[in-house]
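Researcher: Let's continue the batch. This sequence belongs to Nodulin-like domain-containing protein, and it's 80 residues. Same format as the previous ones, please.
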Amino acid sequence: MDRRGNPAVKANTGKWKSSIPLLVNYALVTCAFFGVGVNLVVFLRRVLHQDNAEAANNISKWTGTVYIFSLIGAFMSDSY
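Model: Same format as before. Here are the structure tokens for Nodulin-like domain-containing protein:
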């Protein structure tokens, strides 16, 4: 079905035409995720005055929390 509820024409739908925006979106999300991680390093070092080991430990905790919550969110959305 297409967005209007009509049967999709297999010759005109899918393929690389629809996957390119998905790949671009994934690349931008990945850049944003690692950009936040880099900014978090600067914040922990300059504002909270943490040393390198403590900042690295906190960033590892943040990264793990992000990945765990994405798994929990996936489970919840699949079960809903």
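Researcher: Any comment?
Model: The chain has a mean pLDDT of 89.
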